[in-house]
Specification:
By secondary structure, the protein is mostly beta strands. Helix content is 6%, strand content 46%. The chain contains 7 helices and 53 strands. The strands form 11 sheets. Strands 22, 25, 26, 28, 29, 30 and 32 form a 7-stranded antiparallel β-sheet that branches. Strands 1, 4, 5, 7, 8 and 10 form a 6-stranded antiparallel β-sheet that branches. Strands 36, 37, 40, 42, 43 and 44 form a 6-stranded antiparallel β-sheet that branches.
Length: 744
């Protein structure tokens, strides 16, 4: 799949099926290699003589002065290091300058990411991507490149830090030395998944000056709100497996006084690159947040590296969960969990990446004897909960011995006074592998807070249990459906979906027909579930007839892991003189129009007639008859309606034509030909227009997804632009702002 937002063509990006997007620039010949990851093809450079060799894109791509652009590629070469550059060109395609990445630390035949970013300099009109191998000792040295990107920077959605602070692909201005180290940018050879575009390339390398602690911190101070839980993380690369490196999330008030600092140490299994998370809730009077990283008891000359820095509001492990991220994922320690009674001990599972359901760690519960222990969480606010049902869920995995578990929710009032406990029956924790276990109870009168409690009886000495992904949320229907008659769509909400399964969603009508429902990536058929809640707005639901929905999740073995059935609803078509013209991929453009005259449909057919001499009847050979064709005539009554219809028709996309039952016309996907916009014949100021839309029936555009911003927020827009005024020159419309379609 092509990299989203890539200015390069698919052929130039993946070097498949050929090298037509590339040309040799310096001291090399190019050819198509094999063994790539983004398709099999690679850009194969072979040096002609000793010295640096370079290749560049054939095409140049429009840029805007002062705008930041990013280029990256995957590289492989066993002999010499490599680098990537952006060649800035003026209007005559003359070179202004080249922004080069730092050269990789060494050569590596393993695929590794190289990247660079910079602001387009004065006079730049277009740019090219250059890949380079530095420096062959003679002819015949081979270097491979593929998976190449050039475009606007790819950053973590929702990150309060800028792209440059997150990635250091441009410079180190987003970071500052805090103590006892010097900093530089380096490009170690790190292999990330081929479709992961937020890591690799430059890392901040901090060199310890003298024996002792050393640290760096972000220079940016993004606004933070008291009472909101935030998650900070970055990639850390320690100098040795035994080094203590860490990430720290800090909160400050408006006077730059540090209010709180929460640190999470990386338990590194080696000297590779590992993502370490830390989370906490911003205290009262918080004005902004900072992310820091460092090493404890470092040795002079040791280097620790940092990349991929992010500060975001902490995610919920289940939609609506009241359990803080720290207490549910155990990325720092065991948070607010305690042993109330018994011999059990609690600890964060180490080292990094040993086992988990979320993040990189889990909690281990160890019982040295075959006895009973009671383990309890912190107390979590649940609001005015009396009479409401709550679900507690947690992942558990027995790795030694066995356990019998009694699941409990404890209820408290607003002052933390204990009210009562709701418990299930004892049952064995399943084994082997991870299991999601849950319990559901109704909160008593005056309940405002709750805690999760487990009574665990070890069945043998030295029993060990791993726990991860703990949640507590108000129980809501797993399937909900509602309608919006004014905008002619149905909202379907699916909850508690099994992650990492594959989802298919159908719309059903009373005649038994099932139609796939459209989502952001096209029709939802076998789509990987990455969140436990899915909300679908179905703008293609028929008008005036009963519809319901059925969803099915299957695992990688094609076994059904969950299914959902909805209630039935009917969209009110309203005034039968009106119909809908809809853009399936851009529902914000949909138009409700008055019908002047429905089409007189034609069914074209290709035929060849042969007149046989002396025979009365012709011999006719026919192809299959085509779909419906005809002119739909509609009215617009105001200038706003007229502009909206232009907005719908301008892209030339496939449209959905819908009319109320009784018109004798089924919903159909159509393509509109040359449009006639005629005046109604009244005074010149009369806003009424009569539109003639030549329609041809076409197939459902199955691969078209509903345009969306993938979680994009106003904070993202503010982070990416210095002032709100910058939006005027970067975006043509507010729709472009929403979907991040910049002019450049």
């Amino acid at each position: 799949m092509a990299i989203a937002g890539n200015f390069l063509s698919a052929t130039t990006e993946s070097v498949d099926p050929n090298t037509s997007g590339w040309v040799a620039k310096l001291n090399c010949t190019i050819s198509k290699g094999t063994g790539g990851r983004n398709g099999d093809g690679t850009l194969r450079l072979s040096s002609s003589a000793a010295g640096e060799m370079q290749a560049r894109t054939v095409a140049s791509y429009p840029v805007v002065v002062g705008t930041e652009y990013e280029a990256f590629a995957d590289a492989s070469g066993a002999t010499v290091p490599d680098r990537i550059g952006i060649q800035w060109l003026n209007a005559s395609l003359g070179e202004i300058s080249i922004s080069w990445s730092v050269t990789t630390l060494t050569a590596s035949s393993t695929w590794h990411r190289i990247a660079v970013a910079d602001l387009a300099p004065a006079g730049a009109v277009t740019a090219r991507v250059i890949v380079s191998a530095v420096t062959p000792a003679g002819a015949g040295v081979i270097q491979h490149f593929e998976n190449v990107f050039f475009g606007l920077p790819l950053r973590t959605t929702g990150n309060l830090l800028s792209f440059n602070a997150e990635s250091v692909e441009r410079d180190l201005s987003g970071w500052a030395v805090e103590s006892n180290c010097s900093t530089a940018r380096q490009v170690p050879m790190v292999q990330f998944p081929v479709n992961f575009y937020l890591g690799g390339g430059h890392m901040l390398a901090a060199t310890v000056t003298a024996n002792g602690n050393a640290s760096v911190k972000t220079t940016e101070e993004p606004a933070a709100t008291a009472g909101v839980e935030y998650l900070g993380y970055c990639y850390l690369s320690p100098p040795t497996a035994g080094s203590t490196v860490w990430v720290e999330l800090r909160f400050y008030d408006a006077s730059d006084v540090q209010l709180q600092a929460t640190r999470a140490n990386l338990s590194a299994p080696g000297t590779g690159v590992y993502r370490q998370r830390v989370s906490d809730t911003a205290p009262a009077n918080t004005a902004y947040a900072v992310l820091a990283a460092g090493i404890t008891s470092g040795t002079a000359g040791q280097v620790f590296r940092v990349d991929g820095a992010v500060i975001v509001p902490a995610p919920k492990l289940r939609e609506g969960s009241v359990v803080p991220y720290a207490d549910g994922s155990f990325e720092k320690d065991v948070a607010g969990w305690t042993v109330i009674s018994g011999v059990a001990t609690l600890a964060r599972l180490t080292p990094w990446g040993t086992d988990s359901l979320d993040g990189s760690y889990a909690m281990t519960v160890t019982s040295s004897t075959a006895t009973t222990s009671v383990i309890r969480s912190a107390i979590f606010p649940i609001g005015d909960a009396a009479g409401l049902s709550f679900t507690a869920e947690y992942g558990m995995k027995v790795t030694s011995g066995g356990f019998t578990l009694t699941r409990t929710i404890r209820w408290y009032d607003a002052s933390n006074n204990f009210l009562s406990a709701s418990s299930g029956s004892p049952a064995a924790v399943p084994s082997p592998n991870w299991w999601l276990l849950s319990v559901q109870f109704t909160a008593p009168a005056n309940a405002a807070k709750a805690a999760i409690e487990w009574t665990l009886t070890a069945t043998s000495a030295s029993s060990v249990l791993r726990v991860d992904k703990v949640s507590l949320w108000q129980s809501l229907p797993v399937t909900e459906i509602s309608k919006n008659d004014a905008s002619a769509y149905i909202t379907l909400t699916l909850r508690e979906l099994p992650l990492d399964s594959y989802l298919t969603v159908w719309r059903r009508t009373e005649d038994g027909n099932r139609t796939l429902v459209r989502g952001p990536n096209g029709l939802i058929e076998g789509e990987l579930i990455t969140a436990d809640v899915l909300v679908v707005e179905d703008y293609e639901a028929p008008l005036g007839v009963p519809v319901d929905y059925y969803a099915e999740a299957r695992n990688s073995s094609n076994i059904v892991t969950a299914f959902r059935d909805s209630a039935t609803v009917i969209l009110d078509p309203g005034d039968v003189q009106y119909g809908w013209l809809k853009d399936p991929g851009n529902p914000q453009r949909n138009c409700h129009v008055m019908i002047a005259r429905a089409p007189d449909w034609q069914r074209p057919i290709q035929q060849a007639e042969y007149r046989v001499r002396g025979r009365r009847d012709s011999v006719i050979h026919s192809d299959v008859r085509g779909g419906l064709e005809g002119d739909l005539v509609v009215y617009t009554q105001t200038d706003d309606e007229r502009e909206r219809l232009h907005w719908l028709l301008d892209p030339g996309n496939v449209l959905l034509w819908q009319a109320a039952p009784g018109h004798g016309v089924s919903d159909m996907y159509v393509s509109a030909g040359q449009v006639v916009e005629a005046r109604a014949g009244g005074p010149a100021t009369d806003p009424w227009r009569t539109w003639t839309l030549p329609l041809k029936e076409v197939a459902n555009p199955t691969t078209v997804g509903i345009a969306g911003s993938a979680g994009r927020t106003w904070q993202d827009i503010l982070t990416e632009n210095i002032t709100w005024g910058d939006l005027l020159t970067r975006y043509a419309t507010w729709e472009d702002v929403l979907f991040d379609r910049r002019i450049s």
